[in-house]
Amino acid sequence: MTDQVALPWPGSNGPRPGAELHELMTRVAGGDAAAFSSLYDLTMPRVFGLVRRVVRNPAQSEEVVQEVMIDVWRTASRYDPARGSVHSWILTIAHRRAVDRVRSEQSAVDRETRVAARSVDPAFDEVSDTVTNRLEVEQVRRCLGTLTDLQRESVTLAYYNGYTYPEVAEQLGAKLPTIKARMRDGLIRLRDCLGTAGGQTP
């Protein structure tokens, strides 16, 4: 896999004034998927650049960027223009997500090292983490079941098998724009499902 990363939506024709970004953000807060696509298109290059510098790993950087944009979609209504530009707000989310990923990876390495260094029963927090992770996996599996076959195949290849968008398109014998559209729609549906499922957790 190369460092070349395909954007899930077509590239923009250039920067737009902050006022238009603010208008897009307002529409995204209202659930406008088309506005979200445009906002993603305009902010993705800077978001990926920041994440890539922090995370380093190209594949993980792609994953973090998708997490960032899902956060933007879910929390757009919280954006306050009085506290900064749209770009600044999104980049703040991106930096936090990237740092969290680095810390999470390091914690996983440290935990594996501790487990390998001793032959006693696992600590409670390790058991708790395992249970929580399994519950999250089951939740994701249930939500994947709500997608269409084409959306599910695209998302599974990208996020579980580590394929890039061009590689997903090649595997499924579909055109790249079609794959990008599947991924966009699939992520939006997953966001809605996970949000609902999360709200049902006691």
Describe this structure in words.
It is a single chain. The longest helix has 32 residues, at 86-117. The chain has helices at 18-29, 33-55, 58-75, 86-117, 124-144, 149-159, 165-172, 176-200. With 202 residues, it is an all-alpha fold.
Protein topology:
Layout: H1 18-29, H2 33-55, H3 58-75, H4 86-117, H5 124-144, H6 149-159, H7 165-172, H8 176-200
Helix pairs in contact: 1-2, 2-3, 2-4, 3-4, 5-8, 6-7, 6-8, 7-8
Structural class: mainly alpha
Helix share, percent: over 70%
Strand content: under 5%
The overall average pLDDT, rounded, is 75
What characterizes the major β-sheet?
none
Q: Which shape, going by the Cα principal axes?
A: globular
Order of helices and strands: HHHHHHHH
Q: How far is the first residue's CA from the last residue's CA?
A: 41 Å
| Annotation, overall tally of beta strands | 0
Give the radius of gyration.
Answer: 18 Å
Count of runs of 4 or more consecutive helical residues:
8
List low-pLDDT spans.
1-16, 119-128, 198-202
Keywords for this entry:
mainly alpha, single chain, 202 residues, disordered C terminus
Please outline what is shown here:
Helix content is 74%, strand content 0%. It is mostly helical and 202 residues long.
